[in-house]
Design goal:
The structure is a homodimer.
Chain A lengths: L3 E7 L1 H4 L7 H11 L3 E8 L3 H14 L2 E5 L10 H9 L4 E2 L1 H13 L13 E2 L4 E3 L8 E6 L2 E6 L3 H17 L7 E8 L4 H7 L11 E7 L2 E9 L3 H19 L3 E4 L4 H11 L4 E5 L5 H7 L8 E6 L3 H8 L3 H7 L4 H15 L3 E7 L14 E8 L2 E8 L5 H18 L5
Parallel strand pairs in A: 1-2, 1-3, 3-8, 13-14, 13-15
Antiparallel strand pairs in A: 4-5, 6-7, 7-8, 9-11, 9-12, 10-11, 15-16, 16-17
Chain lengths: 415, 415
């Protein structure tokens, strides 16, 4: 027995390609973690006829439906009306929700436009879900055989309300499938080669199920088990991981779902090493990803975005002679940038990137996509070049950032 | 008459919340731009039964269906089989696709695993769509009354193939609705207040349609018109924009779909001003967004990510006395950081951020979310503080980045 779920995201801006739906993915992860089986996401526009069909179909198929969007105060926010139409009754005005909404706006010194009254209307039989970080309440209502939850589309509000209202309610439903997952992170083979190596584990219907996700040059082997209890599911995942590790050998570089920068920071912290960065074509992306990690200040000293030759000289002490002789995009300059950052930030380890992201700036000897890297330690500095395919500025930049994570995972860090 | 489209994204990792679907949004934008009306996205897992239903339903509803994912070489890649089942015939082996695939792998010095043979199999009646930047061909096939296009899920491959194969084919279909859009960018009011101001324009069924998207503190008024010709649609959008501008007044800060950083760079370029950045809690995010913009090197000199007090002193020349007296998160230190960056990078304008992103580091006087900003010009430096709500490290950082864009859009830049 399983409890199935579907996720709906409502909004013209989504379905016409103006805004990216990140809510559905997040909700799916949270529901799966407590044992629901998510079958489908549907993203639809604000057209009431289309929306009514989408809601009706989802509520006919799944045990739990979580919908986001269309709860704003403006005329194109129609979710409340559509659900009321589906249930065949009128919207009703919820005084407590209105009081909260007025209080919220007044506390911020903002006027209370009449249009906001719309946000305190609920479909027949709906239970309001309080919004502690915004104006619009969500609601929960039985729609056919499904429990339908409707939340605001603003990610922050949706997340707080899913965790505060939806997950506790759903976690108490009978029939949840105890689930566990375990991820093995792989660096080295192509997806096809990895798939061949672990093929027997990927047969359909296997429990634990094993799948491969390729994302940004990185491969993740995702093991998902269902069992009678959460503990049994964990054990099953662990057993499968035990069988997979010998097959992966050196390809395996980490376990868990942490992003690459976090795995790098963990490695540096374990080695008691501090890091500084000297970025040119990666523009601060490496520093920005590091600073995203809570507690990184014990590892990360800082960095320079040396986007011009002047700044490479002034901020990092790269000798003018090197720049003149070899050019900014060269291994000697990358090495000097890394050494300069290491000294100026007093770090154990420093990395540097300097390259041609495009579309302009390429030449015959140094085409667009040529990026030089360096890693400086007390023992010395190593510099190398990668010819990244010219598949656009963002691609070159992202591939260069990935090369730094790869180097910081694989290169020796000790003095 | 309209040509409707639906978009499918296939993959367990998507529907179980492990990976974010960015393809569907991108495809929707491209299809809408040539006049299709996108009705729905569906994201489904790899289960063959579920997938068959999803494909069958979409092909029964829409004129054009674009599906991504499930074309890899491993056992969990089932799209080819599902479509063949839907069409009621066997897969067939396409020799030219196989030759391309082998050549692609050999050229990269990689082995050709047998599992890749799967990728050269096509459903009955399907026309292969060559993949110039990867191994798996896509395909086009008539499925019921729909033209079904299936592309790889790897974003880069999908984008090249959509533009190379799908858009030209679809652009030639009869009945496309000439469409145009125009965006007005608004900074100032809440979404509700803006919605009240322009309410008559947002009535359902209006052509041009007017909608409001709220994203990252920014509001976009999106005007979309359909008409007999593209030129007429453009005129209709322009006419509506003409009626809206007086209603928006000072709230209107830009037009078009450029992201904020690009609008900022355009403003700086028009003023002939160069920029340097001194970032602490924003960690390089501002620099990274700027470097994303082609041609930014004429405006952006570079930046420092001064993540420690030492680096604020060493790299930016912030006096130790200021740090001791006021602390790193203070207006005097922010001002000194901006002035230091301005001098060291030889820029006309410099900005600085220094704050407490959390979860640690807060105090009674300076709770988590306290961020100090500064903008330095030849005429002097202005520093100010914003108390950002503590809604997580990423939220504080993003709000701080947004505050810098706002300042660079609204503050005077001249000497």
């Amino acid at each position: 027995m399983t409890v199935t779920a579907e996720i709906l995201a409502v909004g013209d801006e989504l379905v016409h390609g103006a805004l990216l739906d990140t809510n559905s993915k997040w909700i799916a992860g949270e529901l799966e973690a407590i044992g629901l089986v998510v079958r489908r996401f549907t993203v639809a526009g604000d057209d009431p006829e289309q929306l009514r069909i989408v809601f009706a179909e989802a509520c006919a198929r799944a045990d739990v439906v979580v919908a986001t969007g269309g709860l704003g105060p403006t005329l194109d926010d129609r979710t409340r009306d559509v659900v009321a139409g589906l249930l065949g009754g009128p919207l009703w005005f919820d005084e407590p929700s209105w009081d909260h909404l007025c209080g919220w706006l007044r506390q911020r010194g903002r006027p209370v436009p009449d249009s906001n009254r719309r946000q305190a209307m609920l479909p027949p039989g709906a239970v309001p879900l309080a919004n502690p970080v915004g104006t619009a309440p969500g609601f929960r209502v039985q729609a056919g055989l499904a429990q339908l939850f409707v939340l605001p589309g603003v990610p922050r509000e949706m997340q707080v309300m899913l965790q505060g209202h939806v997950l506790p309610f759903v976690a108490a439903m009978p029939g949840l499938t105890p689930t566990a997952q375990l991820c093995l992170r792989v660096l080295g083979p192509s997806e096809a080669l990895l798939g061949e190596r672990i093929e027997p584990f990927m047969a359909p219907g296997r429990n634990p199920a094993v799948g491969i996700t390729a994302s940004g040059g990185l491969l993740t082997v995702r093991i998902v088990a269902t069992a009678a209890t959460r503990a049994d599911a964990h054990s099953a995942c662990a057993a499968t991981a035990g069988e997979l590790r010998p097959l992966l050998g050196d390809w395996l570089f980490a376990e868990g779902t942490a992003e690459l920068p976090e795995i790098v920071v963990q490695r540096l912290a374990r080695a008691g090493a501090t890091l500084a960065v000297a970025e040119s074509c990666t523009g601060g992306t490496i520093a920005a990803r590091l600073v995203d990690i809570a507690g990184v200040s014990s590892v990360f000293r800082g960095g320079v975005v040396a986007y011009s030759n002047d700044s490479k000289r002034e901020l990092l002490g790269v000798p003018a002679a090197l720049l003149d002789t070899h050019g900014a995009v060269s291994e000697p300059v990358a090495a000097a940038m890394a050494q300069g950052a290491r000294e100026r930030f007093g770090a154990d380890v420093a990395i540097a990137t300097t390259g041609i992201a495009g579309p302009d700036g390429g030449s015959a000897q140094k085409p667009v996509g040529t990026v030089c890297f360096a890693l400086a330690r007390a023992a010395g500095v190593r510099a190398w070049t990668v010819r990244i395919p010219d598949l656009g500025r963002s691609f070159v930049r992202d591939r260069a950032v990935f090369e730094i994570w790869r180097a910081l995972l694989r290169e020796p860090l000790d003095a």
